[in-house]
Design a protein that fits this description.
The complex is a heterotrimer of chains A (351), B (83) and C (436).
Chain A lengths: L5 E8 L16 E4 L4 H9 L3 E9 L1 H6 L1 H15 L3 E4 L6 H18 L3 E5 L5 H5 L4 E4 L7 H18 L5 H4 L7 E5 L4 H13 L29 E6 L3 E3 L15 E4 L11 E3 L7 H5 L7 H9 L5 E2 L2 E4 L7 H17 L4 E6 L1
Parallel strand pairs in A: 1-3, 1-4, 4-5, 5-6, 8-12, 8-13, 8-14
Antiparallel strand pairs in A: 2-3, 9-11, 10-13
Helix pairs in contact in A: 1-6, 3-4
Chain B lengths: L1 H9 L4 E5 L2 H7 L3 E4 L14 H19 L7 E3 L5
Parallel strand pairs in B: 1-2, 2-3
Chain C lengths: L1 E7 L3 E4 L4 E3 L2 E4 L1 H11 L5 E9 L5 E3 L2 E12 L18 E15 L17 E2 L14 E9 L5 H20 L9 E6 L10 E8 L6 E5 L2 E2 L6 E3 L1 H5 L3 E5 L9 H4 L3 H8 L6 E9 L5 H17 L4 E6 L3 H16 L3 E8 L22 E5 L4 E3 L4 E3 L4 E2 L8 E2 L5 E3 L17 E5 L1
Parallel strand pairs in C: 1-8, 2-4, 6-22, 8-10, 12-17, 12-18, 18-19, 19-20
Antiparallel strand pairs in C: 1-11, 3-4, 5-10, 6-9, 7-8, 13-14, 13-16, 15-17, 21-25, 23-24
Helix pairs in contact in C: 1-2, 6-7
Chain lengths: 351, 83, 436
């Protein structure tokens, strides 16, 4: 006996519903029973394993401007027909349509617990916003690529409708959400590296297992205009702390920083301080802590009047293994402190 | 520390990072980078006699102060010589 | 060079009156071996020595693990398995070598945390034979003969390091003697002495080790490699144990001697040599170079070695954390700039669910094809175990005093850095970071 087909509610916009283009961006939320627009193409591809039981559409501008009100009605319309899956788009590279798809799918998931799937061009701004909330199938840039997009959506819609979820992103080909877990795979890493290399040597382009993630661009601060009047602070990632590590700072994976007095010190005397950073041989900085917290040199310049004052304490932690989120947190806490203490500039040291 | 230096800059506090590996700092996007002595001694160099090492350290911090008072548009690496 | 390897696979390991291998059971005369090792410990640095046996599937945890060694015997060809250690540094890699493929000799000792360098001390290393942490180490699947050692106090790190390594190698050689006149279960031959089809793609493998001072060193033909210039090695030299590890600083970031002589990428490239590809050789160097200039120099020299070998593609792996990743990434960059396609395999960060911050501690834009050996930033709960071998406590967090803690209890670790070989830097494990 054939299993019951997966029940799908399909969300599209005013254009794919045949209402009109940009000029109809404020057209109201409407629905019909059964498939419409691209849903008709999907129906053929489902081969009886799934069916669009209801199609919803709304003007892209209207739903973006009246999110709460429209989504409330969307959720009602979806709940009425109890689908297994909410499918949205494909929205290609259309920004507002992409956002609309994302918010519809997210609302149904949160309010009704119904899983969702949508199709977007990978550079659609909605991808970064919604990729953690729902599976996004990568599709082409415009509706001209509809014919390539629909089969991918159809296959995954059926799979997801039956299982409630999909396999990992390399198997099922959706845009990686950013979630990654350690799992056992059939072959060891050495073998997979050799296979990947052989593919490249044959001229193919295998998919990397570890995508490169870029760093946020922070514009440089305005330069210090009057050095002679400035207070300067030292922040070190070299893990130089008073002997005995009084604050129990961690040697790696830092989650806190220490604050240590420089009052009355023209240098950090060896023996009273200890490098606890677990990633480099601390022998040299233990012999002369100024090699990582340059108090002696800064005191000389302070005395010469090059700048007004060296802050009377320095900040210390062990800068290895700290993930970016924690680094940002600790960094902004230190920046806050520096501002509170009227520090105009800082010298950081890292190993 | 590269990320932390950026947080200081984000808060409007110009900051210079003394590091032995400027390439990493540059790719993370640190704006003011001073090439330091070595990984186990970023503001020093134990291969030098003590007085010359101190001179080197003094030049590193002077260069850091120079970087802090300079306009930079993008990650910039400053070097120090002991000549 | 041409090397034949004969393998024995044992079904049990047990103490008995006479050391020998019969019907798949490896028997060890405990008293005889202990006496021998203590007698040969010329500087009397080992205060007490006990032997323990830990088997696959046991409800057991092994702690204080330093190096782990293979049991191998050269019966043809020059040199001894693991040349340069307690013997002359004779070039190996030819002839015939017998090995027990699932028997490992483990050196376990609480080496003094001398209070000096914040990097250079052995952090406690764990192998769980069963449970959620077992898959992080290949030694949950081997029969392990533990050398549980207690050292005298007052000696130097260099001496302790030497003493434990010598004991391990002596034990390995004592066991290996058993194989001398036995017939192995299976053999394989790696022949690099005859030319291969010129149409086969030429592949080299860059092995970058760690060597930052005593307790973090790697030995090439018996000598640590602080000053090494990248060198070409025959794969068969590596398989014959020319690389021995004295690296105990970060348990997850290491390649122990056992794995060096059974390096998975080396074995696989050897097996396909002349058929699927032309394995032109191994380039061996060290990472953690102290300045950008030195990193570039080593990376360029290593990449050039592969270029001189005619490599069209390279596999790159390294030992150690972020600092070492930089050297390897610059090596990769140089290879790619010269048109040599490079594929590295490496551990990831990413936090517990993979979304936190960066995945690779350092990368270059050219690193577009990377294989994952799993994330080290996953929390893990070690279950309560029935038995602890190698020691009776865990020493964690030296920077806050490092007091001993019970080893058999359930314990949750934030990250997997204490798991022996947990970052899978030899690529031997099947854990990977899988994207969703």
């Amino acid at each position: 006996m054939m299993a019951k087909p997966v029940r799908i509610v399909h969300y599209i916009n005013q254009f794919f519903a045949g209402i009109g283009g940009e000029e109809k961006g404020s057209s109201p939320l409407e629905f019909c029973e059964g498939p419409k627009g691209p849903g008709l193409g999907l129906t053929g591809l489902f081969k009886g394993e799934a069916e669009v039981v209801r199609t919803l559409w709304c003007g892209d501008n209207l739903i973006n401007q009246n999110q709460e009100e429209i989504l409330k009605r969307v959720v009602e319309l979806v709940a009425e027909v109890k689908p297994d899956l909410v499918l949205a788009g494909p929205a290609f590279n259309a920004g507002r349509y992409g956002l609309a798809c994302g918010m519809v799918v997210k609302a149904c998931k949160e309010k009704l617990g119904i899983p969702g799937l949508m199709g977007l061009f990978p550079e659609n701004p909605a991808v970064d916003i919604y990729k953690k909330d729902t599976y996004i199938v990568p599709v082409g840039e415009s509706a001209a690529k509809m014919r390539d997009a629909l089969p991918k959506l159809a296959t995954l819609a059926v799979k997801m409708g039956k299982n409630g979820k999909l396999d990992n992103a390399l198997v099922d080909g959706y845009i990686q959400t950013g979630y990654r877990y350690n799992e056992y795979v059939p072959e060891n890493a050495a073998h997979r590296a050799i296979s990947m290399l052989m593919k490249r040597l044959k001229g193919e382009e295998p998919i990397t297992e570890v995508p490169l993630r870029g760093f946020e661009k922070v514009p440089p601060a305005e330069p210090l205009s009057d050095l002679k009047k400035a207070t300067i602070a030292i922040v070190t990632g070299g893990g130089m702390v008073p002997k005995g590590n009084p604050d129990n700072l961690k040697q790696a994976f830092a989650d806190a920083f220490g604050v240590y007095s420089l009052e009355g010190l023209t240098e950090l005397p060896a023996g009273d301080y200890k490098g606890i950073h677990g990633g480099f041989d601390s022998t040299w900085v233990d012999l002369d802590p100024d090699r990582v917290v340059p108090v002696d040199a800064l005191r000389v310049l302070e005395k010469e009047g090059k700048f007004a004052k060296l802050l009377d304490h320095y900040y210390s932690l062990c800068g290895i293994g700290t993930n970016v989120a924690m680094s940002k947190k600790l960094g902004s806490e230190i920046a806050e402190e520096l501002k509170r203490k009227n520090v105009q500039a800082a010298i950081f040291t890292s190993t | 520390m590269s990320t932390m230096q950026k947080e200081a800059e984000r808060a409007g506090i110009p900051a210079a990072l003394i590091t032995a590996i400027p390439s990493v700092a540059k790719s993370v996007g640190v704006s003011r980078i001073i090439t330091g002595g070595g990984i186990p001694y970023p503001a020093g160099d134990p291969n030098l006699p003590a007085d010359r090492e101190f001179e080197f350290r003094k030049r590193l911090v002077e260069k850091a102060l120079e970087a802090i008072t300079s306009q930079v548009q993008e990650p910039t690496v400053f070097h120090v010589t002991l000549a | 060079m041409k090397l034949e390897r004969g393998y024995f696979k044992i079904t049990d390991l047990a103490f008995a009156d006479k050391t020998g291998l019969e019907k798949g059971i490896f028997k060890v005369n405990k008293k005889e071996l202990i006496e021998r090792l203590l007698a040969e410990d010329e500087n009397h640095l080992i205060k007490t020595l006990d032997l323990e046996i830990v088997k696959p599937g046991e409800d057991a945890r092994i702690v204080h693990i330093l190096d782990t060694i293979s049991v191998g015997l050269k019966i043809e060809g020059e040199g001894l398995f693991m040349p340069g250690h307690l013997c002359d540094p004779v070039i190996v890699g030819e002839g015939k070598t017998l090995l027990v493929e699932n028997l490992a000799v483990m050196e376990c000792a609480e080496l003094p945390w001398a209070g000096k360098s914040a990097l250079l001390y052995p952090r406690d290393a764990i192998v769980d034979m069963t449970g959620p942490a077992a898959g992080y180490s290949p030694f949950s699947e081997t029969f392990n003969l533990i050398l549980k050692m207690e050292m005298v106090t007052g000696a130097s790190d260099v001496e302790y390091d030497n003493a434990v390594r010598s004991a391990g190698i002596r034990a390995s050689r004592y066991l290996a003697e058993v194989l001398r006149n036995l017939t192995p279960d299976r053999n394989e031959v790696f022949d690099f002495s005859t030319p291969v089809d010129p149409a086969l793609k030429k592949i080299a493998y860059v092995i970058q080790c760690q060597n930052q001072g005593t307790y973090s060193n790697t030995f090439l033909y018996g000598h640590e490699v602080s000053n090494i210039v990248p060198i070409r090695l025959s794969p068969t030299e590596v398989l014959d144990g020319c690389l021995v590890s004295g690296n105990y600083v970060w348990p997850c970031f290491k390649v122990p001697s056992f794995i060096y002589s059974n390096m998975p990428a080396v074995l696989e490239l050897c097996r396909g040599h002349g058929k699927e590809w032309n394995f032109v050789g191994v380039v061996f160097d060290r990472g953690h170079n102290n300045s950008h200039f030195e990193k570039q120099r080593v990376a360029n020299l290593a990449a050039n070695q592969t270029r001189l070998m005619g490599a069209e593609g390279v596999i790159i792996s390294w030992e150690g954390g972020g600092n070492a990743a930089t050297d390897a990434m610059i090596t990769l960059q140089r290879c790619e700039a010269w048109g040599i396609k490079a594929v590295p395999y490496t551990f990831e960060f990413g936090g517990p669910d993979g979304t936190e911050g960066i995945l690779l501690v350092d990368d270059v834009p050219e690193a577009k094809y990377v294989v994952s050996t799993g994330s080290i930033e996953k929390p893990i709960t070690l279950p309560k175990v029935k038995r602890v071998a190698g020691g009776d406590c865990l020493r964690l967090r030296k920077e806050t005093g490092g007091a001993p803690e019970p080893a058999e209890v359930e314990r949750t670790l934030d990250v997997i850095t204490a798991l022996y070989c947990g970052a899978n830097q030899s690529g031997i494990g099947k854990l990977a970071g899988v994207p969703y």
